[in-house]
Amino acid sequence: QVRLVESGGGLVQAGGSVRLSCAASGLTFDNYRMGWFRQAPGNEREFVAVIGRYGAITYYADSVKGRFTISRDNAKNTVYLQMNSLKPEDTGVYYCNARLNQWSDYWGQGTQVTVSS
After folding, report:
1. How far apart are the C-alpha atoms of 117 and 115, rounded to whole Å?
2. Which of 11, 65, 88, 95 has its CA 20 to 30 Å from the CA of residue 41?
C-alpha cells in the first residue's frame, strides 16, 4: 500500500526557513511526478510546486517562485521542499502528492507550517 509521510513542519518567524520532507513507500518512486500543495484555514488546497520524475523539470506557483525549491532523491524515495523568506501567508497544512495518472494519485496526511509575523 502506498504511503506518503510528510515531516519538517512547525512554527517559524517571518523571514525564516523550513525544509519539508516527504518519504514515499509502496510505489515505484521514480515513476511518479511529485508535488507539494498547501491549504490555509478556510481556503481550498492550492498548488505550490511540482517536480518531474528525475528532477530535471520543476514548476512553482507564482506566490512562492524564487523563495521555495523543490527537489527529490530517488535513491531515498523522498521529495523535499526548501522554503526560505517565509511570510505569514505561507501558513497552512502542506501536503505531498505523488501522481502517475488519474488512477494512481496519492496524498500524504499533511504537515503544519505556521509563520508568525
Report:
1. 7
2. 65
Q: Which residues pair with 10 in a beta bridge?
A: 113
Q: Which helix (H) or strand (E) holds 73?
A: strand 68-73
CA distances for 109 relative to 43, 54, 62, 76, angstroms: 17, 24, 25, 19
Residue recorded with cell 510505489: 27
Cell of 98: 505523488
* SS3 assignment, position 53: coil
- The number of helix segments (H) and strand segments (E) in the chain equals 0, 11
Q: Grid coordinates standing for 67? A: 523563495
pLDDT (tens, 9 = 90+) of the chain, 117 residues, equals: 999 999 999 999 999 999 999 999 999 999 999 999 999 989 999 999 999 999 999 999 999 999 999 999 999 999 999 999 999 999 999 999 999 998 899 999 999 999 999
CA–CA distance, 101 with 33 (Å, rounded to integer): 9
Please count the CA atoms within 13 angstroms of the CA of 97 that sit on its side-chain side. Answer: 22
State the amino acid at position 34 in one-letter form.
M
